[in-house]
Amino acid sequence: IDVFLARSLLEKLYLFQYPIRPASMTYDDVTHLSAKIKPKQQKVELEMAIDTLNPNYCRSKGEQIALNVDGTCTDETSTYSSKLMDKQTFCSSQAASNVSRYAAAVYKKGELHLTPLHGILQLRPSFTYLDKADAKHREREAANEGGDSSQDEAEDDVKQITVRFSRPETEQARQRRVQSYEFLQKRQAEEHWVHLHYYGLKDSRSEHERQYLFSQGHGLAENTELIKSPSEYLMMLMPPSVEEENDKPMAPSNVLSMAQLRTLPLADQIKILMKNVKVMPFANLMSLLGSGTDATAVLRCVQQVALLVQGNWVVKSDVLYPKDTSSPHSGVPAEVLCRGRDFVMWKFTQDRWVVRKEVAAVTKLCPEDVKDFLEHMSVARINKGWEFMLPYDEDFVKKHPDIVQRQQMLWMGIQAKLEKVYNLLKEHLTPKKQEAQSAHPLVVSGEQRVSMAKAKVKQNYGQLEKEFQKQKAEMKSKDASAKTDVPNIRIKEEPVSVEEPMDTSAHNEGLNNGLVNGLHPAQGSTDPVNGHLPGGCIDRVAQELKAFVSSTFKKQFVLTLSELKRLFNLHLASLPPGHTLFSGISDKMLQDMVLDTGCKQILVPFPPQTAASPDELKVYALWEAGDTYDQHRQVLLEIFSKNYRVRRNVIQNQLSQECGEDLNKQEVDRVLKVSFCSLW
Fold first, then answer.
1. Are 595 and 601 in contact (CB under 8 A)?
2. Could you list the mean pLDDT of each consecutive 10-residue stretch along the chain, which spans 680 residues?
3. 375 occurs within a structural domain
4. Fewer CB near the terminus (10 Å): N or C of the chain?
5. Which structural domain, as residue segments, surrounds residue 667?
6. What single string gives the DSSP state of each residue in 547-587?
7. Rounded to an integer, what distance in angstroms lies between the CA atom of residue 449 and that of residue 633?
8. Please, which residues bridge with residue 112 across strands?
């Protein structure tokens, strides 16, 4: 079949798509009453007649609609002059934004003539007459309500007018105004309608215009566009539509189509993968790129968009935060965000753990930005900090030492920049001592920890034994007179059945070598075990114990015996080997020392069914600390000695009565926090 391109109606031919017509309407020459068009907007309005004599037409409904729209009076402004809805208006909308691939075809005598379409318009019913009916209804209601207020109309003649002067419009404000929806609507409304005349199908003018659908000349000069190869010819008929591809539903931003990805160049593939994943071992990157990909080319491309951290590739900061962007949390520019994220990456090159507060203190960025940095490459661990999310990739480091060396040089340059920007101290620059970054598991099991502890104890046992013998010799030399008559010395021993030695298992289990409170039991009877001390050592032990108790209760005014013992064990762990407090302190000695330092035992009436241990039920408080809250604290202790649970308003009233002060809620909270910070 010969195909010809007709040009006579180029940029003039439109395709109208009518809706499914009701039974009372036919699209013929009679029904088209008027038509008008806005060429720039390609907007058309057609007014078509409705057959009111059709048996399917509801006359009562048509009269009611005409009455609602026009009211009882009929004039030139009436929509329905016959007092009957006898016409319908149709408005157009564009069916497709790009119609360059569509054409109207006419087949005649073995020839196909094509005329490109300038627009495809869908016609839909317009219901503007309903808006007119609503306006009429509101006018009638306003007239009825305003009938009684006609006497006040004279007073409404004088109105105050406020004059405002517009500011000079900036270029940015003008661009925003031009792109606004209101401005575009105003521009569209300003375009004038061009009235059209409708010619029927059998009209002579229509017959004449239809001839333009055929190509006027069959010579080669008229159809040079069609002298193409078959593939070029098909490409002309069906060109790829960019806009329709954009109209396809977009996938979520965190979803990546691997089929589309592999159509891109290798550098773009690696950049998109690293930007989405952020941290990736080299082996995983190679598996995502598919088989047959050259590893050397991948290494060359990945170094452009990522940096090596603990043998793994982490996307560069400037890829995540391009120039001229800012933080969605704080509005900080991309340059500052890149420096802060580079500092976090550099910290992970020094250690597997990073503390969030330290990063925030150095970078001076908001917590949300710092959290984003850390979530990109690490995982939060309770009471430890943020750990790098991937294990150390020793295989890559061994296979590519040249890459590792090049990356180390890059990090040295980044470190130098960070030192200048943040004025880093030595504590920030010196990496923490850690196990060598190797393939050894970072998570140590319980059995391994026990074996490591035993080995460490055996290693230090000889040194501990020497220090103990040295201390023992010093004690004997100082107390020579007392030790000449050891059998005559009587030390009041505590009855074992009444008071047991203080539980220091948390400290003893760490040694696990038969030591009791830090000393070996297989010594003479004069050795300090479980509170039985040589005479000359008692005073020093008492002084050390009193100093500990005093300093502890000055920091935390109220403590249970359980908490006090825990703090004492922590204090013992911080002391050097052979300290006098390692001689053994019983519970009774500790409680007596608490009472001697000015503390009192508060007999809190806990309920009998409580699950607390006996040590947790013994509460001690410093009665006088010498601060401004002594009186308030004593009142609180008296209150809790009568009931273990008290309402806040009762405490507030009692404090106001006893102290003669009218305390508000914030002041009461401050007193409670200062007095009972260790318990409640």
1. yes
2. 87 85 59 78 82 85 84 74 83 83 90 90 84 76 65 57 76 80 81 84 85 74 63 80 50 61 85 90 88 88 92 92 86 89 91 89 88 90 88 92 91 88 67 44 59 71 73 68 42 41 43 38 40 57 85 83 85 76 78 85 79 82 76 78 76 74 72 60
3. yes
4. N
5. 537-676
6. HHHHHHHHH-SEEEHHHHHHHHHHHHHHSPTT-GGGG--BH
7. 45
8. 3, 107
